[in-house]
């Protein structure tokens, strides 16, 4: 990818600590109401004539809506649910997210080049990590409205500094429009967005999830013509 070249055009940033308080109860309530309506509409679609592939996509859509609804319900609860990390194959998890987005990727003219190495299993909060991967992929797709290429890579490694802990590195890179230099320091802040219809919650959630795993996230980006794109690199410690 061109963004890997030309160090003068690359910026690097670690996620800032998440804002305290999380999603407010009022915001969670407003999110949960339309989600319940959407879930009811999906149930109604089950009675419609659909192809086998269409029914598969409908089942996946229902699963994702339930997952988002669960996140909203947890935010509304006064007592957070106790969720324990579980042994997770990070490569398989990312591959599942890519498979779920396959139709959208193909229809958008986006090619995915994925590389997964052996030994990519750690104890992780699977649901939250899946959502973080989904948000990064959706950001990449939105940065390439005319199509492009996404590179994903999962491999064993060490953290860049500090205790040099062993763990898993995940790279999600695109050759989209890139992120302006002035916006790099703000992209992990809750409600920050440059999109007219964006909520500004996507990358802040990514930051929160990676910090919950006691890991790090870095971003390098370029908007230079012919060398534009963005690279997100995550580190998830093994213990």
SSE topology string: EHHEHHEEHEEHEE
Q: If strands are numbered along the chain, what order do they take across the biggest sheet?
A: 1-7-8-6-5-3
The appropriate CATH architecture of the largest domain is 2-Layer Sandwich
CATH superfamily of the largest domain: Histidine kinase-like ATPase, C-terminal domain
User: How confident overall, as mean pLDDT?
Assistant: 79
Q: Kindly, what is the distance between the CA atoms of the first and last residues, rounded to a whole number of angstroms?
A: 32 Å
Q: Count of helices?
A: 6
Which sheet architecture does the biggest sheet show?
A: 6 strands, mixed
Q: Tell me the radius of gyration.
A: 18 Å
CATH topology of the largest domain: Heat Shock Protein 90
Would you report the number of β strands? 8
General form:
globular
Number of self-contained structural domains: 2
Percentage beta strand: 15-25%
Category from helices, strands and their pairing = alpha+beta
Give a description of the structure.
This protein is an alpha+beta fold and 239 residues long. It has six helices and eight strands. It has helices spanning 25-45, 52-76, 90-100, 102-107, 126-142, 202-212; strands at 13-14, 86-89, 110-116, 121-124, 148-158, 166-174, 216-222, 229-237. It has a six-stranded mixed sheet. The chain has a two-stranded antiparallel ribbon with strand order 2-4. Helix 1 (25-45) runs antiparallel to helix 2 (52-76) and helix 3 (90-100) crosses helix 5. 27% of the residues are buried. The model is unreliable at 1-21 (pLDDT under 50).
